[in-house]
Amino acid sequence: MLRLEGVEFSYPSAPESTMHFDLQVDDGEVLGLIGPSGSGKSTLLHLVAGFLRASAGRIVVDEQDLQNLPVAARPVSIVFQQHNLFPHLDLYTNVALGVDPSLRLAPAQVDAVRAALARLGLESLQHRKPGELSGGQRQRVALARALVRRRKILLLDEAFAALGPALRAELIELVRELVQEQQMAALLVSHQPGDALIASARCAFICDGRVAALADTAQLLAGSEPPQLRAYLGSQ
Amino acid sequence: MNIPRAIPASLVLALLALLVLAPMAGLLQLSALPGFEAADLRIWENAYLRRVVGFSLWQALLSTLLSVLPAILVARAFALQPGLPLRRMLLGLFALPLVVPAVVAVMAVVSVYGSDGWLPLGRKLYGLNGILLAHVFFNLPLAVRLLLPQWHAIPQSHWLLAEQLGMNHWQRFRFVEWPQLREALPGVLLLVFMLCLTSFAVVLTLGGGPRSTTLEVAIYQSLRFDFDPAKAVVLALLQLALCMLVAIFTLKLQRMPEVEIAAATPWAGKSKAAQWFNLALILAATLYVGMPLLSLLIDALRGPLLRVMFDTGLWLAFGNTLLIGISAAVLAASAGWFLLAYSAELAQRGHSAAARLVDLAASSVYVVPPLVIATGMFVLLSPRVDVFDWVYPVVISINALMGLPFVIRCLGPAMRQNHARYHRLCLSLDLRGWNRFRHLDWPLLRRPLGLAIALVAALAMGDLGVIALFGSTRSATLALLIYQQLGAYLVAQATVTALLLLALCLGVFVLLEHLIGGSADAAA
User: Fold this and answer.
1) Considering only CB atoms, which chain B residues are within 8 Å of A13?
2) A143 and A178 in contact (C-beta within 8 Å)?
3) Is residue B266 helix, strand or coil?
């Protein structure tokens, strides 16, 4: 379980705008995060991943506070929109780096990498380089790496934004399955409210650096509060 | 704060400061130098100084105009002929002067325009004419390579719109091409002006007489022939002031184009007459650049090859050249790597002003010419030690300093891009230190690194500025040997030595670029 308790952060360039987050994501749950550009969705993910340090509050995973842990020591895997893979390494190596950056893998770890690739339907492509793959396949590789890392938290930072609607829906469905299988807690940032509808039972609307609304996804998208959500969705 | 990156970068910055500021301190001890008189500082009253400054500026201005104005036409011709057969090879030829040592270019120019050359100018070659011919040989191709990407940057839709609106050639140039060209032109003009203002080997060998001496050559003559350090320091301070002025103008412009050929193809002209005109321009420029090199090759092969090859002095100079070239390249690349790694990290953390400052410090040699630094070192060291015993550390470190801006320009964009794209991923995967270097930095940066090392090695091997001040017979490089042979009127031997130096520079360039950079698809 991931819990953000009174987490505060402000960028040095705008010290007067302090963001404030309180949130909880259960094991096996994907929580959708929607909101306008610059509202703080990616900042929230980067605080959990450790790329940014909160000025106050706690980020807790299974009762362990992550605040003082370096990025690599946090139980977190992240998938970005692009540049998830090293272009000069083949798929197998890109995934294996997630297990051990020195690439000194025990036989069981090699099997785990192969199994993850197989699970994502990439077994036959393992010796190809990212440049030879489609956008959807590249994101599958990034998910395979998240799978072998076996971390409790999965962060998806507009991971599927560059894909078409059908492929996006397919990959979000896949994420749901993986999160269920490994009992991870996942945060999915998306600009498409429809993504949240597919991905998550619950959804948070982030606005001005705060969780402005958190509810059942269908209810949230159909509701009328807060007004910023209406403006964001473009509905009356 | 990432301590491992900050520490080596700080060390490099401290060394840079020492290398630039200590010689400056030497120059500022002017009043303590033997032969100094306060009247030396009243430059406007000294006819010799006025003449030297005037000629320095005049030859730089003429060289710049004669290089850049034709380069605009040639670059345009290349841009509008994307399907030209051998286009790649011709553009490759235009890259050659970047690695051809200045003294070799002088020999090549002499072999075409000298009294026994294909287009003999006789005694008129020596002086301003020869200086201009050699400077244009160097800078016209450079300007073509700097300007060509401007045409590639014009959006396809602009070409189509111009065609749809029925613009003629002049209108198209005025409304489509000129606005893009205008962006880069001041930067290119100032860069070429600066290169000509600080040109040493060309002026030393083709000019040098009382009527055609520049500040750089006058500094050298004051130190090595007149033994007048006070005059050398006044000249060096003048040169420093001029270079700072040009650097300030350049900084104001804020934009210096990259030396690269973009892959995009611009609109190709349809008029037959225009196509023939473009082809004629390309042919003329190719002949201008290619003919001297071809002539040098023929002259050298007809020269006293065996006699020169069996001279032990030649092989000693060969060894010195290699030692200085490779050492300077490794030093510059290491320093550049540490500085860039740190500046990329600073930029990533949002300290873009500090990152820019680190990059600027690495390019300080743009403001303080190498010969000015060398003069400062000479003045600083000569009362204390035998400066000729210090030739290797001094020549290697100043050449490394001269090469540092090239490392920054070759490696900087790739390193910053790498950092911006993968730094967070590396953090989350715990990819750092040796693992990061072998899995990420080396495979993705080896090509620009190879190019940077190869370029700096070739430049250092061909340098005649610092080695002319500090070199002796024992420590001569091939470039200095050529100059000594010319001084002894051994032109045929100098031509053979020039060919050997050219072969060495090109060979080392290709070898280093290939060995370090790997094959073209290695980083694909």
Assistant:
1) 350
2) yes
3) coil
End-to-end CA, chain B: 33
> For residue B458, which of B322, B363, B331 has the smallest C-alpha distance?
B322
CA–CA gap between residue B400 and residue B327 (Å, rounded): 8
Q: Do A84 and B425 touch (CB under 8 A)?
A: yes
CA dihedral over B267, B271, B272, B274, signed as positive or negative: negative
Write the burial class of residue B301 (CB in 10 Å: 0-12 exposed, 13-18 middle, 19+ buried). Answer: exposed
The mean pLDDT value of chain B amounts to: 86
Beta pairing class for A76-79 and A2-9: unpaired
Rounded mean pLDDT, B495-515: 93
- Scan for tokens 């001041």, then name that residue: B186
Decide: helix, strand or coil at residue A189.
strand
DSSP output for A24-61 = EE-TT-EEEEE--TTSSHHHHHHHHHTSS--SEEEEEE
Residues of A within an 8 Å Cβ radius of B? 12-13, 49-51, 70-73, 76-78, 80, 83-84, 86-89, 93, 97-98, 101-103, 129, 131
Residues forming a β-bridge with A155: A78, A187
Residue B426 near residue B440, CB atoms below 8 Å: yes
Q: Is-contact B118 B295, C-beta < 8 A?
A: yes
B522 pLDDT band (50/70/90 cuts)?
very low
Q: Report, in this order, helix, strand and coil percent for chain A, each rounded to 5.
A: 40, 25, 40
Contacts of A98 in chain B (CB under 8 A): 429
Contact A32, A203 (CB under 8 A): yes
Residue A56 β-bridge partners: A8
B63 pLDDT above the threshold of 90: yes
Alpha carbon distance B191, B145 (integer Å): 13
Q: What is the mean pLDDT of residues A129-133?
A: 92
Q: Which has the closest alpha carbon to A151: A47, A97, A75, A78?
A: A75
The predicted-structure confidence for A19-43, as pLDDT tens digits, reads as follows 999 999 999 999 999 999 889 999 9
Are A72 and B421 an interchain contact pair (Cβ–Cβ within 8 Å)?
A: no
Q: Which residues pair with A146 in a beta bridge?
A: none
- Please state the three-class secondary structure of B115-184 as a single string: CCCCCCCHHHHCCHHHHHHHHHHHHHHHHHHHHHHHHHCCCHHHHHHHHHCCCCHHHHHHHHHHHHHHHH
Tokens of residue B353, six digits: 């002003």
Contacts for B67 with CB less than 8 Å, ≥ 6 apart? B135, B136, B138, B139, B140, B142, B143, B192
Distance, in angstroms, between B159 CA and closest chain A CA? 30
Average pLDDT over residues B496-517: 93
Q: Looking at the complex, report in whole angstroms how far the Cα of residue A120 sits from the nearest Cα belonging to chain B.
A: 20
Model confidence pLDDT, tens digit, residues A74-111 = 999 999 988 888 888 899 999 998 888 888 899 999 99
Confidence of residue B317 (pLDDT cuts 50, 70, 90): very high
List, in sequence order, every beta strand (DSSP E) within chain A: 2-9, 19-25, 30-34, 56-61, 64-65, 76-79, 153-157, 185-189, 202-207, 210-216
Contact residues on chain A for B346, CB-CB shorter than 8 A: none
SS3 content of chain B, % helix, strand, coil (to 5): 80, 0, 20
Nearest to A153 by CA among A33, A40, A34, A2: A2
Question: Is B44's pLDDT higher than 90?
Answer: no
B386 CA to centre of own chain: 30
Q: Can you spell out the DSSP letters for B361-374?
A: HHTGGGTS-HHHHH
Identify all chain B residues contacting A72, using CB atoms and an 8 Å cutoff: 427-430
Report the alpha-carbon distance of residue B198 to residue B244 in Å, rounded. Answer: 12
